[in-house]
């Protein structure tokens, strides 16, 4: 297995080298104005104040877990629902195919080729937002699950058997940590992210890894190894809608965090995602401009890779230091604690994603309106939207700043609330309050860092 | 607990909108102001001399970017989506700063950043 990974890496690197930066990029060249200082101060002050209020107003029974069961809305096992599911899955497969074909054969100008905006904006950012606002909607479309499950079902049929149930015993998320890191490296460190051919290489290599792994290890492999599906699934713990026992259910937002399975590798996974968004914010700073601004090509990729690893390391270190502090306050093992409190990082990750990528979705994302009429950049006009003019003033800088500040502050409050709930479900009130001091320290630090990065100073 | 969280969020929202108000939007500068900012860039060996600068302009101003040096690079202003083809290493681009934000200006071929423009 390791030889195959090694070979894939060599091939991928060679292909990346071959496709090169030769195309225009439409994504990521516009970023937000620096956050006004008064807004930063207000939000940071609010975060600190609300943390202490929460500490003082510590509720005495775990509330989230009680409400996590929600109530059933409708069955998903009816014929109609199953048919709908098949349709959405086929649609997902179709979209995936279109993006792949556009990436490999479409116009190399990333502004007119649908692959860049579809993958990097609507998929990466859009689905994160949809996941924490609505529920794990990617499960309706996920092409890898469709292919893996479909192939397994066909194989079972050919043997006259029925499809074996999914076996996730002993599953860890470490493969997903690796795959999401590779994507984040591609998105943030690699110098030619938006180039359609580069996207083609990335998606092809990623798909081969996913499906190859599924052939070898069974269809449960994609559940452990597909970083995208894992991320959307974790974020969906914040959302109201979920499916359980054959029913679509609704619960209060955030309560799903108490039910997040403590699969090994979950905490490193969230820390890598959080660290990467932090690095993205860091690249807007004047420090980074001085260090890497004049660099291009592979030189910039190397600098950015180092930066990405350093920032992820720092973000992880903050969390682990807090866990060891909590360990001495509660007498529990630090690595147990880091797993138990891991879910409280999910609201922070969601908040960071909104703060950094909201304007990308709403402004640059409008390019999709033009691209659906001409996905391959050949001059078509399928839906009559070819002449749509992107309105970069659709949301004002003050609206963007408001959304960013609100997102980070709300994420902070939710993270603190979730941490309190976990603490009170494990300890008596006195120990619980004491255990939260390191946790508040972490939350406030992440919040202040998040806000500070928005200054783009 | 849930209601407390909702109250906290509402307080936050009210606070954000009440204080400071619309400090981000600002009034547009004099439209048609032909005396708008001029930014000079000197290019040598595919890189800008003096390193990548951060420059600012007010919304509504007429921005001029003048480039001198060697090479026949193509310069791309992101966001505004403007292209300038250098001839004999010379060229200038004039446009109205109507979109607020921070924009990268770079060489199309190498992807190398040459200027960062902030429009407020």
Name the average pLDDT of chain B.
77
Biggest sheet of chain A: strands side by side, in what order? 2-4-3
- Strands across the major sheet of chain B, in which order? 3-9-8-5-6
Strand content of chain A: under 5%
Number of helices of chain B: 1
What is Rg of chain A? 22 Å
Largest sheet of chain B: 5 strands, mixed
The SS-based structural class of chain A is: mainly alpha
CATH topology of chain B: Immunoglobulin-like
Oligomer: heterodimer
| Cα distance spanning the termini of chain B | 41 Å
User: Which stretches of chain A are low in confidence, meaning pLDDT under 50 for 5 or more residues running?
Assistant: 21-26
The topology string of helices and strands of chain A comes to HEHHEHHHHHHHEEHHHHHHHH
Measured as a percent range, the helix fraction of chain A is 55-70%
How many structural domains in the coordinates of chain A?
1
Query: What is the assigned CATH homologous superfamily of chain B?
Result: Cupredoxins -  blue copper proteins
Can you tag this structure with a few keywords?
heterodimer; A: 457 residues; mainly alpha; three-stranded antiparallel β-sheet; 18 helices; 4 strands; 66% helix; globular; B: 120 residues; mainly beta; Immunoglobulin-like; five-stranded mixed β-sheet; four-stranded mixed β-sheet; 1 helix; 9 strands
Structure, explained:
The complex is a heterodimer of chains A (about 450) and B (about 120). Chain A has about 450 residues and is mostly helical. Chain A has helices at about 1-20, 35-55, 65, 80-105, 115-135, 145-160, 175-190, 195-215, 220-225, 225-235, 265-280, 285-290, 295-330, 335-340, 345-360, 365-370, 395-425, 430-455, and strands at about 30, 70-75, 240-245, 245-250. In chain A, helix 4 packs antiparallel against helix 5 (about 115-135), helix 5 (about 115-135) packs parallel to helix 10 and helix 7 (about 175-190) runs parallel beside helix 11 (about 265-280). Chain A starts with a helix and ends with a helix. Chain B is mostly beta strands and about 120 residues long. Chain B has a single domain (about 25-120), classed as Sandwich (Immunoglobulin-like). Helices cover about 15% and strands about 40% of the residues of chain B. The longest helix of chain B is centred in the first third of the chain and has 17 residues, at about 1-20. Chain B is globular, with a radius of gyration of 20 Å. Chains A and B meet through strand 1, helix 2, helix 12 and helix 17 of A and helix 1, strand 2, strand 8 and strand 9 of B. Strand 1 (about 30) of chain A pairs antiparallel with strand 8 (about 100-105) of chain B, so a sheet runs across the interface.
